[in-house]
Structure formats: C-alpha cells, structure tokens
C-alpha cells in the first residue's frame, strides 16, 4: 500500500504551518522527514494518519493493505504512549481487543511480537519498571501486533539517551531486514535519517515546504556506524539545514 | 387498629401532654395509633408539619410558624403551656457578672445584651415586651441555639435571658447565673406554646384532629392534676415523673432526672384551651417588627373551631 | 511532477482512496453562551412552575419575587448594611487564617520535625465540623466579632496548610539544587526559589480556602450577629421567608463566583510566567 | 598511580583543600514518633491545666473526663447506636453524591456543551452553605433519612464534580490520540483510557469530598435525628456538656483520619502503576 | 585550579553505585564522563560539586580559583534549571545578588555574558518564550557570570533535539577556544564526548568503576563534524560500552 500526499497546505489560527506538500510514500521503504523545529513535521504525520484534516490538499492510500492488517496506518510516538496501568502484555492486547481478537489468538500474536522485539521476559512488567528504551520496544511490539501497512513514527528515538538510541536503531534495522515495512519517520536527528531512510525529505522553516528530497541507495543492513558515505550525506544535509535550524531555535515563542 | 398519625415532640416536660396520652392509651381510646417523632429544635418541627412529615405538634409561636401559616401550610388549633400566677413559669436570668454589677432587677437592664435564639423568635418577643414594660432598650443577640445562649450567659457575654424553669433553676443553682424576675410579671397569661397541625388536617380531617385533641386533653388533665394540683400525692408525682422520664432526661438515672422534671412543671391548658388575646398580641408584635408579612391575619394563623377560647 | 501525481490519482490502476479521518474530540471547546442559557432556562422554568402552581410556594419562591426582594434590599440600603460586616468578617478571618496557614505550611514544607509534629495534628483538625464547636467558640472568643473571625480563620487555616505544604513539596528540586550549587544562602533559596515556586499551589489552595470561608460565613454569623448576609439568611430561614432566603443564598453564590474570578485575575497577573 | 595521587595530596606544593559541602536539606524525612509525642504532650498539658485550674472548666474539659465519657459511651452500647446511623448516612449520602458527581464530572470532561452548561452551575452551587438550606431540605426531602442523605449527597456532589472533570482534563492527550490511531472506538477510549487515567484525580477528589461529608454529618443531623454522632454533638453542645462535645468531636476526627487512611489504602492498591 | 578524586565509593541504601574512583581533572581541560544508565555519573558530579558527600574517599581542589571567581564549582544542568518567573537577566542576576553584586556592576557582567552567548536581544524574555537551545544558552551565560574555576555539566545537551545540540556544541567549542575553561562533562552521547573531551572517562555498569580513560589530543577547534579520527575513537568507545549499555537498558526498575 502506497500513500500519496497531494498539495497539502495548512494553517492554525491564520498562521501558515505548511505549504503545498506533495509526496509519494512507496510501499516497503522508509521515508524520513527532517526539518527545523516547528516546521510542521508532526502535523504532517497527523494528517497522514487521519488524526487531523489538512486545510487544503488530499491524502490517499493507493492499493489495499496487506492480508491480516488490523490497522493500516499505525503510529509510534516519541513518548511511547503506553498505558501505565497495563502490563506490557496488556498494552498490546489493548489494540487487539477492539478488533475482537482475544484468548488464544491474542496470546499467539502477543507472544510473536514480544519475541521479535526480545521482550518475552518482560510480558508481565508494568511500564514504570522499564527503561525508556524498553518502553519504546513495547510500543514497537504493539505496532507490529496490528500488522500495519504503514508505520508512522514521530521522533521515536528522541526521548532516549544516545546509547539506547544506537541500540534501537540496530533493532529497527534488523526488524526491517527480516520483513521490510513501509514507514514515515520524522526526526531531528540527521544521523538517524541517514541510517534508516531510503528517502530523506528536507523541509524548510515554517511554513514548511519541501526543500529537497535526498535518496540513499545503500541497503539498510549495510549501513554502518561511521560509514563515510553516510557521513557525507549527513554533512550535506546539515549544511542544507544549519542556518534554518539556528533561526528556528532563536525564535521567541508567543505563549 | 386506629388511624396512624405522627406527633412531633421535643424532649421537654412541656410536651408531657402527648407523652401521658400516648403512654396511658388515651390516644388509642380516641382511635389513633400515635407515633412520636422527636426533634432537637422547635423550628424544624413547624417545617415538618408543613411538609407533611408529621401531623400534630406543640411549639411556641415564632415568625416561621406565622410565615408557614400565611403560606397556607399550617394552623394553630389549640393552646398548651401557659403562664399562670402562682406557678413557676419562665424565669428572667442575669449573668453572674451582670448581677454582681448591680443588675438585680429587669428594670436595670437598659442597654444590656439580651440573648435570643433568633430575631423574631419567642425569646425576642418576651424580651421586647419586658423592655417595653420597663421603658428600657435591650440589645438583642441572636445565638441560634439554646446551648449557645447558655454558654454566652454563663460566661457573661450576654447579660440577660429568659427561659423555662427546668433550665433556669439548675443554672441558677450552680451560681453561674441569677434569677432576677419572672416572665409572668410582664406577660400574665402568656400563651407560651400552642398546638398546631397542617392546614389540610385542620380543614379536611376534622375527625382525626378532634380525636387527637381529645386524647391530648386527657393527657393534659392527668398531668395538671398530678403535678400541679397534687391530686395523687407524692406517689402520684413519682409515677408521673417515671412516665415522663421515659421520654425526658432518659439518659440520666431517675434520681437525677426527677428534680429537673419536677422543676419544669408548668400549667398546660385544660382542654387545650387557647388564650386568643395573647396570640393576637404576639401576632401584632411580629407584624410590627416586620418579621412577618403585614397582611397576615389571625384567621390565617388560628382555627378557632376546635377548642374553647379563653377570655 | 505534480502533473504526474495528479494523473496517477485520477487514473487508478490500483484504487486510490482518501485516508479516513479518525481524530478529533476529547478537546473541550468553550461555548460561553450555553452557561448563560442554562441559567435563564432554569429560572424561567421556576418562574413558570411557581406561577402555574405546579411548584408549591413551600418548595420554591417565585424568582421574580426573589428579584423584588433583592431590589428592596438594595433600595432600603440594607444590602450594604448586611454586606459590609460580612465582607469585613470574611476579610479579617480569611486574612488571619490564610496568613497563619501559609506560614505553618511553609514551615512544614521546610522542616522535617515541624512536618512530623504538625501534619497529624492538621489531619485530625480537618474533619472537625466548625458548627460543632460554636458553643466553645463563644466561650473562647466571645460573641462579638472575635468569634466570627476565629471561626472563619480556623476554617480557612487547615485547607491552606495542606495546600501550602503540598506546594512547597512540589517545588522543583533541581531549582533548589541549582540555588545551592551557586552558593545561595538558605534564606535566599527560600525567598527566591521556594516561595515563588510554591505560589501556584498556594493560590489554588486559596481558591478552596476562600470558598470555605464564604460557606462558613453563615455558621459564623450564628453567633450573635445582627447584620451580615449569614445572619440575614438564618433569620429568613427561621421565619421561613423563602424569598429572602434565596436572595441571601444568591448573594453568597455571587460572592463566591466573584472571589474565584478575583483569584483568577491574580493568578494571571502573578503567575504569567507559567506556560 | 594512586600512590602518586596520595603523595601529591600529602605534599602540597599547591594547597589541596577538600571541596566544601553545600547540599542537603529541603528533603523532608519522616519522623513518625514526633506526631505521636505532640498529641500526648498537648493532652498532658490540657490535663494538667484543667486539674491545676489555670484552664477553667468552661474553656476545656479534662481529657481524662473525655476519655471516661467515651468509655461510658462504649460500655452503654450507645457508641454504636450513634455510630451506626451516622455511618449509614455517610455511606448512602456520599455514595449517591460521589456517583452522581463522578458521572456529571466525566460528562463535563467529555462533552463541550455539557461543560459549558454545567460548569457555571456547579461554580454557583459551590459557595452555597448547606446549613442555609436546611429548612428547604426538610420540605423537599422530609425529616426522615431522605433529607440527611440529600444534604450529604449535595455537599459531596460539587467537589466531586470539580475534581472529576479536572482529572479527565488532565488525562494525557497522547494516550487518547494513541487510542484513536489504533482505531479504538469512542467507548473503548473512554472506558480503557480516559476513566483509568482519571482515577488518581478522582480518588484525591474523593479524599476532600469525604472529609466534607463528615463535616456535613453534624448539619445533616440537625434535621430531626435522634441518634447519630452529629446529633450527639449537637445535644452535648446545647446542654453545654463539654466532655460529651469533645468525645463526639474526637470520634468525628478519628473517623476522618480513618477514611483518609482507607483512601490511601485504595490508592496504593488501585494506583500501584503510578511512578 | 585542579580537582582530584581519591578512591570515591558510595552506596545508596546498601546498593553500591560506585566503586573506588580515582581521577584528576586538570585545569583548562574538558573531562568527559561516559557510561551506561545508572552507573553513577550524576552522583559523581554531585560529589565533585559538594552537593552530596561520598560514602568513602576524598575530593579536593588543588590551587586557588582564579581572580574574581564567585563560585568555583558551577553546574550546568540537563533541564536548564532556570527560574521560570525571572527573565533571562533576572536569572543571571540571581546568582550575582547573593555575592553582593548589584546595580551597574551586575549590569556590566550580565551584558558581557549575554553578548558572549549571543543572547543580548533576549535579556527581557521569560524562559517560557525560549526554545530549549536558548534556555541552555541562558544557563551557560549564568554559569559564565560567576566566572567559575570548573564547570560541572550533567548531560547539558541531552534535553535538546539533535540539530540544536549541534549548534550548541559549536557554541561551547567557540567559547572554550576564546577562553579555555575547566569542565567535567557527563554525557551518554559518544559523539559529544569525542567532539568536546580532552579526556574521556569510561565507567562500567553499576557499581561504576573506571573502565578506561581515552585521551584525544586533537585541538577542539580542529575537530569537525564527520572527522574520521573522531569517528574512529567513537567507534572504539561504542564497542567498549555496547554490551553494558544493552544490559543496563534491559534492567527492570524496582520502584
Ligand atoms: N493544535 C495546534 N494548534 C495551533 N497551533 C499548532 C497546533 N499544532 C501545532 N501547531 C503549530 O504548528 C507549527 C508546527 O507544529 P509541529 O508540531 O507540526 O512542528 P514540528 O515540526 O513537529 O516541530 P518539532 O520539531 O518541534 O516537533 C508550530 O508552530 C506549532 O506551534
Ligand atoms: N538520592 C538517591 N537515593 C537513592 N538512590 C539513588 C539516589 N540518586 C541516585 N540513586 C541511584 O544511584 C544509581 C546511580 O544514579 P545516577 O543518577 O548517578 O546515574 P547516572 O549515571 O547519572 O544515570 P543516567 O545516565 O540515567 O543519568 C542509580 O541506580 C540511582 O537509582
Ligand atoms: Mg514534532
Ligand atoms: Mg544522570
């Protein structure tokens, strides 16, 4: 299933936050979206997932979601969004219950996704007992449980410390390598973008418009920590964005 | 099985008419199955009659009672406690401090603080009448509850108050307050309390109401003859006190309760006769003070068709 | 490129359907007029019912009569004669209760031993109904203004203490560590970090304390008050004068809303730094 | 290397001095016994004062007499005769007020129009003193248990509503967006996300509501109650019997502390997931 | 002024959190401390700053702090620790007031540090109006105002997004280059460590002990984004820590 964005523009209370964004998200690829603070990345992702409606433009899904897909467009959030009163298992079964999956079938699915995210031993743990990295793994397992057509990730690693981030990047790469998924991956972190993205969409400052789309052909599982090609791309991206990032950072927030 | 009715009462000796009538079966004789409903204060009792929770009760005339009568909710149908010469009635008290400062007589109360439960209560009426008679002015202090007034006069924060004898005498006995006069010197034949019921009972339940008054009157007769006229001698008094003790001061042993009950003896009108003149005077006073609507008439308040009016 | 995209969308070899919307909701939007309409409708129903007679005069007064009573009260000048003493009692009592409450609360927040001693005491005082203590207050503070101030002060004291020490506990500890790390004196830390940091909590505690103070006005004016909104209400109640009773209750209710709005104003002024 | 370090430290060509400590404090430590000691000392002072006479018998009763009164009350079986009806009133009244309050609060939290209509109403009801309405309650609900339940229910209703809709407002919006993003139904989101998420706030509101319920017990039992702790206190007050008054007040105070402890227990049970 | 740590060990409620740490912090250098979560980095920094006392061992300062130093050991916190009710100016004057510096002298110092951190235009802004990056700049300005002998930084950049982090790293480097300061810099981020550290102290898992000290000789201002030497060092560090980081991440928290 592909996603097509068609001339998306939007403004909040008269302030334009994005302008004429047209973009294709092809199945089986990871599209990273980078851009300075406040350029509308999260808003764009909410549009794609149908959580909000753009002022102008159209978002369509092309083709059918795969067999057994419970929730075609599935989010992974920056702050994990686990229900603190449910165990790891319970958090996953939450999203199955509403699709009528209970009992043995649910147990099977939960067992499978926990195994894939190496969480089998933590099935009965409460979120408060887990480190940030483990929590995000649970969120990933939950997303996998509904067998999504497209994963929508809003800075999934930016609440984690950088060592944990490294570990989770490895996990994501190995998950993708075993079974490629489609993803829109919003991030501030250019290193993550070059490590995980097949395409990297660079947005300008608010109102966000597409400044450039950088494609990286190297297969995901061959991308290494400190790979010179990737460093090159990252440097290029940083040079593209640096001034805008500084300007965005120095903006006064009107509260 | 008689008609079921509910009679409101306070745990005061002044409600003995109902106690005796119930205990000695006079209500049952009149074909009534009476359930006594006890209250902590008189005012809610009037409201409870209005709301239909109880059928008959005895209480002093207050602004609230008149106001409810004007709204067509209740009617006074007879009299109960009355001030009678020769029998200890309500006493006028002065605090110890005031007494020591020379207030040994109500005429010396000019400008002093006089305790009442509420503006527009019966205490207020009595106090104002005393002031009028003596040609003095009093500062009335509304303290809501009898307990608060007791506290205030004991500690000398108010100077004077009037109250029924069974409270006045033990207080005076303890030395914390002093009796400086009697209400009956100012308000002879003051109709202290009245029998009242809902307007509906008075107008439409004549049989029931008459039956109640019949039973109640018998109780009153027994009480008066035993306690005031001493018809049964000391033994009769003892028996009567025992009866009353089931309802009043029942958390104290009999020996301790007896003096209080005997002290509280006041005449209850035979046949629930009503001193209409006194009631009219009270009504006029409430109207003059603006505590009730000036449009209320004695007919709104009293149904004179049930009992004999005293002259 | 946008051409290609468009043609792709209009000629669906594979079906292109718009993404379904599933967000929205769970975000209250203000509708100011609804509150107003609800009030007006309730009052109109009451007026209709009392006029038509299916609400008896014993149950509710006519709203128009309540308004008339209020008008009389205003014109006769009695409104201010009642309002004046009540406001003075509220002010003095609450000022005293809140001042002592905030001080004790701050001490509890700062000193472990004070906390250990005072918290159980406050917890034990909290559920004591103030009206139960009226007879005692008469003895302790007299029937003059003293006992009224004392009752309101006592009633506002406990919730203020609880709110204040909670607020002090909630002051961001990193800010305190920051103060220490820059060598600020203990007193500077308390004055410049702890107290301003506890302000939001103290003010929202004040909201509750003052509501309680208004509620206690009636209890306070049970004690020998001739004038005062509470006394006015009590008298109306004992005379079963529903018009006046409701007029008095409406005054208290308005007073409560005004006080709450005032605190809101202060919050916006003083706590403008909050995000 | 450690040798070198040590010799460097012991032979200071340049002065080596320890880093000064400047942290600590601002972190309350529990001292359970202090609270106990404070109570005992206060009681002992009262006992001494009343015995020695420098506290007059009018001001305070002897603590030992209060204890004796309490003993009598217990032995005569009257304690439970009073406690029983009071607890029943508390339970029924609070159950009713809290149930309705939580329901209305949740509705306010979920629906903008309900919020716009109900919030000003609740704000206007909040500062109305319940005792002022006693005469009305008798007419509305009779003098039986009904009016007592109603008074307590009414008193617990408003704070519960306020606490509940505040709690619903505070439920983490990302959790709700998460639910929507996984296609959960509206009802599932309310049941599985909003309600459990609002639990902590609702329970801490319950703490206040129940304290208010206990306080209102006395007012409720002004309405023709023969038995009940409130009635006992009122009677003691009107007879100016300080021993019984204090015994009653202590019972209410203990009741308040017990209820608060119970809620603490429930919180630890139900809200174990909180960090 | 140097700092010397001498056999520092500590335990909280019977749980050992660090073990026999001996370390010299020479004047004018930046010492980075890296290590997995919970290994005691922040605790160690609190010991150095005198905010907490170690169970065993000694921390001494050797030599006198420089002329005009108001607060020899000065922190920069991860979450900025700005008083939200004071303006940028007010936050800086806070730490001067207690040293009796007011009026013209204070204005002079504040003006100077704001200029050095490029915040002159934001003097009257409240913290809530500032982005994270600007807030941390204010915290740095505040630290500079007291002219510290040693700066103690506890993950100063980890609350920032990675673009802002880049910008601030540049700022720190240029500040140091103009006037070298002594710093103990705790971080999870190995990239920051190799960009800013003269020495990198690698701690083991809890109980933390010094596993290795890596020295980087390249001058700070010559260290570039994507520098192969630095990438080499970073890779080495990551390989040192990876397994421990994973183990630390997977630990259940006993609450
Ligand atoms: N619900 C909303 N109402 C009003 N303004 C909004 C809303 N959501 C976002 N905005 C504004 O729209 C702009 C874009 O916000 P968005 O969160 O999409 O940016 P972002 O690129 O994700 O930023 P960041 O990198 O900080 O996450 C910002 O200026 C933000 O303040
Ligand atoms: N005040 C304290 N009381 C009890 N235990 C504490 C205290 N402070 C820290 N700890 C514990 O000591 C250990 C070390 O904590 P510390 O914060 O120093 O680790 P850290 O290396 O800074 O971790 P992180 O990388 O997560 O910031 C942790 O297990 C922590 O739970
Ligand atoms: Mg975003
Ligand atoms: Mg740390």
List the helices and strands and how they pair.
The complex is a heteropentamer, with two copies of chain A (255 residues), one copy of chain B (311 residues) and two copies of chain C (275 residues).
Chain A: E1 2-12, E2 15-25, E3 30-34, H1 41-49, E4 56-62, E5 73-76, H2 88-97, H3 103-116, H4 132-145, E6 150-154, H5 162-178, E7 182-186, H6 190-196, E8 199-203, E9 210-215, H7 228-249
Parallel strand pairs in A: 3-7, 3-8, 5-6, 6-7
Antiparallel strand pairs in A: 1-2, 1-4, 8-9
Helix pairs in contact in A: 2-4, 3-4, 6-7
Chain B: E1 3-10, H1 16-23, H2 26-29, E2 32-39, H3 42-51, E3 56-60, H4 63-70, E4 74-79, E5 91-95, H5 96-100, E6 113-116, H6 122-134, E7 139-142, H7 146-154, E8 160-163, H8 165-173, E9 177-182, E10 193-198, H9 199-204, H10 206-228, H11 233-245, H12 254-263, H13 276-288, H14 298-301
Chain C: H1 2-10, E1 16-18, H2 32-52, H3 63-75, H4 78-110, H5 112-125, H6 134-141, H7 145-169, H8 173-181, H9 186-220, H10 229-238, H11 242-270
Helix pairs in contact in C: 3-11, 4-5, 4-7, 4-9, 4-10, 6-7, 7-9, 8-9, 9-10, 9-11, 10-11
Bound molecules: adenosine-5'-triphosphate (2 copies) and magnesium ion (2 copies).
One adenosine-5'-triphosphate binds next to helix 1 of chain E.
Keywords, separated by commas or semicolons:
heteropentamer, A: alpha/beta, six-stranded mixed sheet, globular, B: alpha/beta, five-stranded mixed sheet, 43% helix, 18% strand, binds adenosine-5'-triphosphate, binds magnesium ion
Descriptive notes:
The complex is a heteropentamer, with two copies of chain A (255 residues), one copy of chain B (311 residues) and two copies of chain C (275 residues). Chain A is α/β, with parallel strands linked by helices. Chain A is built from seven helices and nine strands. In chain A, the strands form two sheets. In chain A, strands 5-6-7-3-8-9 form a six-stranded mixed beta sheet, with helices on both faces. In chain A, strands 2-1-4 form a three-stranded antiparallel beta sheet, with helices on one face. The model of chain A has no long low-confidence stretch (mean pLDDT 91). Chain B is an alpha/beta fold and 311 residues long. Chain B is 43% helix and 18% strand. Chain B contains 14 helices and ten strands. In chain B, the strands form three sheets. In chain B, strands 2-1-3-10-4 form a five-stranded mixed beta sheet, sandwiched between helices. In chain B, strands 8-5-9 form a three-stranded antiparallel beta sheet. Chain B is globular and about 60 Å long. Helices cover 75% and strands 1% of the residues of chain C. Chain C is an all-alpha fold. Chain C has one domain: Orthogonal Bundle (MetI-like fold), CATH 1.10.3720. In chain C, 44% of the residues are buried. Chain C starts with a helix and ends in a 5-residue tail after the last helix. Chains in contact: A-C, A-D, A-E, B-C, B-D, C-D, C-E, D-E. At the C-D interface, helix 2, helix 5, helix 6, helix 8 and helix 9 of C face helix 2, helix 5, helix 6, helix 8 and helix 9 of D. The complex binds adenosine-5'-triphosphate (2 copies) and magnesium ion (2 copies).
